[in-house]
Amino acid sequence: RKLMRGPSKDETILTFEGPRINFLQTKTKGYWECMPLQIDIDLYIDTRPVGVFVNHSCAPNAGIKRDKDLVALRPISKGEEIRFDYSTTMQEKSFTMECRCDQPGCRYIVDDFSTLPEKQKSAYLREGIVMSFIARSYTKLGK
User: Who is most buried in 37, 39, 110, 114, counting CB within 10 A?
Assistant: First the structure.
């Protein structure tokens, strides 16, 4: 769908789609191992276009809700790049990447949710933009 304006706050921008694969299958993708979206401990969505083109930011304007829906966290201007924090979907102790988002507060490395500063983790959990399997573990631990 072509929008004449940017997405409004809480508007669903896209739904990540693709076959379900496991952790070992992500590792066979080589350079592209970062494309699957982790939705459980050993379960990933092997994302398809347009989802594979959504980039990371340490100061995201979008987040993933319901484990598959990319939602605007604030009004997004038409033409503004849509980005989410990849760390909100990662808890595998395997993949990291250099961050080049150039945003204030950039962490310079994209890593598992558990490595985020406590204040950032709490904000993302309150916003509801952390994968369910990760959020459940923080609820159980009382964090």
Answer: 37
